[in-house]
Amino acid sequence: xxxxxxxxxxxxxxxxxxxxxxxxxxxxxxxxxxxxxxxxxxxxxxxxxxxxxxxxxxxxxxxxxxxxxxxxxxxxxxxxxxxxxxxxxxxxxxxxxxxxxxxxxxxxxxxxxxxxxxxxxxxxxxxxxxxxxxxxxxxxxxxxxxxxxxxxxxxxxxxxxxxxxxxxxxxxxxxxxxxxxxxxxxxxxxxxxxxxxxxxxxxxxxxxxxxxxxxxxxxxxxxxxxxxxxxxxxxxxxxxxxxxxxxxxxxxxxxxxxxxxxxxxxxxxxxxxxxxxxxxxxxxxxxxxxxxxxxxxxxxxxxxxxxxxxxxxxxxxxxxxxxxxxxxxxxxxxxxxxxxxxxxxxxxxxxxxxxxxxxxxxxxxxxxxxxxxxxxxxxxxxxxxxxxxxxxxxxxxxxxxxxxxxxxxxxxxxxxxxxxxxxxxxxxxxxxxxxxxxxxxxxxxxxxxxxxxxxxxxxxxxxxxxxxxxxxxxxxxxxxxxxxxxxxxxxxxxxxxxxxxxxxxxxxxxxxxxxxxxxxxxxxxxxxxxxxxxxxxxxxxxxxxxxxxxxxxxxxxxxxx
Length: 561
What we know:
The chain contains 15 helices and 28 strands. With about 550 residues, the chain is of the alpha+beta class. Strands 1, 2, 3, 4, 5, 6, 7 and 8 form an eight-stranded antiparallel sheet that branches. It has an eight-stranded parallel sheet with strand order 18-17-16-13-10-9-20-19. The chain is globular and about 80 Å long.
């Protein structure tokens, strides 16, 4: 069996004219490199400081060593191996000094359904209310949105909305916590085996999962295993009995802490769990197993994952993949997540806050140039292993952030532009409920307003999202293709390629605040055509001498084929 491996090398920007990688089997005695192979590498990504060279090589044997040959101007040649950088192509190839890939074991398969799909985040209390009692609930159109407010959204409401979500182009939903709690957000869980009655029952969750699956959709739940709520029975027992409680070591009791125990952040109502404790870890492993097996959920988004004992995640990942190899495990990490993703034994992927912050800077605050944004995008494209790229959750906002439209000062053009990039970039675009209706909302809890079901019809923003989602589903180049910057113009016009072996598209986006007109050179393949078709607008544009005339309003984009 021949496997493939993507090899990447970072060099100083413009330092070399070309780069090669030389690969050999260390067991091919007496001269491994006599039977080795040399592959040319190309610049796949580039930022302000670096070039990122890449090549995909076939592996006929899982054991190999490798070195790099770097060709600079003036005929200078350098060799790079584990011993360092040296001058000269013909210096002795000591196999013991080469970089080593000891054995290329097959990676756990990434859930195919999750690669590049369109997701939708739901805050259950605020999404849709179906058959809920009115007593004690806020009016759905109430302007009063406080943390303690209950609006009565429930699981039946989500199930009723499946036709709407399917028409929008959603392929997976992710819900914030649904288990018993005394808060609307439910991140302070009391009972991990009980659906909050205000949301429904276990039967309601099972019915929701079944209906989603019948419609070709998936569901990911929110697992909060870093901390619990004050009503969690083991915590109540530990507080009452102290060190005599069998659950005492499930928590971090510490008299130096204001609450007398460690917490999530500074929130006394969220005691931190000690998952290094074997009994505590086993409890939460069983929780994950229960909902996978009982209701057929398709995965978990794991809250505050970097603060949890890493070995627990390895056990949790192994448990999930054993029960359902097609299940998905996503980390909530606001920073560089490589520590959690590189080995593939903890998470499938992460929430891509790094990309989100740069989208906010460019489209909301206008605080970075297009060139700086492009550099950040290229950095993001090489940050994580290739197998995780198509599953990175990209988003413009969530229950933890201001809504995108509010960040942009109500400028719907910037919401459209940012979402155009989100849907035409690598990863899994996640729509925060209501963004497709141009809902606004500031900091928590204002970002959790009830869904505006009265604003669905004839909504141009919803039509924009729907068009992007359907195009993404129809074109693998958009959902799982490679990304490469084509051109960045000072006017704010951003052109980038998305491509597979069978399909080549050019996305063009006006990231600025003014209309842009330009004669844009087309990449090879498109430049030879007499006309190109804009998939987004459904129009045909003539090509003259390899150029296409582009006229885009602020936040407007086109997808050329």
